[in-house]
Write a structure and sequence with these properties.
The protein is mostly helical. About 90% of the residues lie in helices and about 0% in strands.
Length: about 130
């Protein structure tokens, strides 16, 4: 009988340890994802199946994402309309100049070189007059 009491005590301590671990993991999961715990609690409280709750939550999320992405969709449509209009104006004879960045950079460098050459000539003249 003493042997049976030891086995029962071991089982009881194992059960309490496992219950403690399971309880802490459940509370940890509830802390990590409080929405899931609240949703499951609401499902139990209002007797709504969890799958229906997940479906309605997903639909609500999709509607919110559509609402928040609507301005970007409108801007995209406006961009393509403007692009189409600019292509159409090319056919009517209006010229739209496409200037690439490196073309502008080359022009700026040429102007800078001309300015430096003029400065160099000015300094040479001053040095010749001063000597």
């Amino acid at each position: 009988m003493c042997e049976e009491q030891k086995i029962e005590a071991t089982r009881t301590s194992m059960r309490s340890t496992l219950a403690s671990l399971a309880g802490s993991s459940m509370s940890g999961a509830a802390k990590a994802a409080p929405g899931a715990a609240v949703g499951a609690g609401a499902a139990e409280l209002f007797s709504i199946p969890v799958q229906d709750l997940i479906t309605w939550g997903t639909l609500l999320y999709i509607v919110a994402m559509l609402f928040y992405s609507a301005p970007k969709c409108v801007e995209t449509v406006r961009y393509f309309i403007a692009l189409w209009r600019s292509e159409r104006t090319k056919q009517t004879g209006i010229v739209i100049a496409n200037v690439k960045d490196h073309d502008l950079t080359e022009k700026i460098l040429e102007l800078e070189i001309q300015r430096l050459k003029a400065e160099n000539e000015r300094l040479k003249r001053e040095a010749a007059n001063g000597s």
